[in-house]
Input
Amino acid sequence: MLTMKKLLLLIPVLLLFGYLIWSNLDRQELDLPTDAQFRDYQTIGIDSGRGNLIGIQPFMVTADYSSEKAFYKKMDGYFAQLKQRHWLNSKSIVVLPEYLGTWLVTVNEKHSVYTSPSSAKALQTMALSNLGSYASAYLSVPDSVKVHPRYAIFKMKAEIMAKIYGNVFKKIASTYQVHIVAGSILLPNPKVENNEIIPQDGLMYNVSAVFRPNGTIAIDLVKKSFPIAEEQAFLAASPIQNLPSFDTPAGKLGVLICADSWFQEGYQVLMQKGVKILAVPSFCSINFGWQIPWTGYSGWPTPVQAKADIGILTEGQAWLKYAMVGKAFTVGNMQAGMNVFLKGQLWDFGFDGRTTSTLGTKSYTDNQSLSSTATCLWL
Output
């Protein structure tokens, strides 16, 4: 017969046993149909043998991040269509959007994470179902970070995120023999070593990697220098002078992640490095966000010359005036540029933004669409 003392000792054991069952329940790999069909295409110019910039605006859903297999299947489906259209060649540079790799943070999680009504609820479930790993990551949060839980979630999953992100795009770059600007991903103090992206202890960054046709990762990662207000709570700003450049058969390439394209300092750094082709991965998290009144620069002082346009221009008009379209040639003397945005149905996030491209002094904007699109700019 159980004594009260034994019963009290048994209760924690039963609770722990119940927790372990719950935390590991429903983690089987999802095997759902993948929709990797472009809904709209845009071709600018003709093939003159100088290469091309290709912008992909993928439509991502939560299940696409449930496993490495699911993420690869989605990405490969899009690239296969580009090949079918004869857009890909040895001088092609394919540009993907900001935050594309970020939601690999949910990989291999409970099914309820993917069906959660909000990202906050999904991340909460992740923390509760991975308490040991989450607690360890939480204790490593740097003192300068304002929002510890968000940092801890991404630190907890950093190794597998980096591994899948690297594996998928190395394979796709080598399969299709193109350069890829692989959107962006949130990782702590990452570096490239032995052709792997290695997260380390330290500050969290919004980073982009460039993958080469031979399946190697460029040694220099691009780190965002001007994180917006929402990001500043847990992401660090990289010095703008650290922006790298990349040699490609189409010309020297530079990357400015989203808000970095609004600041002339980035263009000046890249121009000094001889960059002639610009890729801008972006993300707008508000439905129809390009149609709302512009409120100025987010998280940073609005330049004096732009203040008069606050509340007058729409967000979309401000993007065209103050970001890549307005600065690539006039400030950076760049021959060509491509700016793409993430689309999808991911928890409670909104989506907007249109692919824009520049060729010298000319600029082009694709059709308004909340679906997946592909744009080819022949150089």
In short: The chain has a mean pLDDT of 91. DSSP finds ten helices and 19 strands in the chain. The domain at 38-378 is CATH 3.60.110.10 (Nitrilase/N-carbamoyl-D-aminoacid amidohydrolase). The two ends are 83 Å apart (CA to CA).
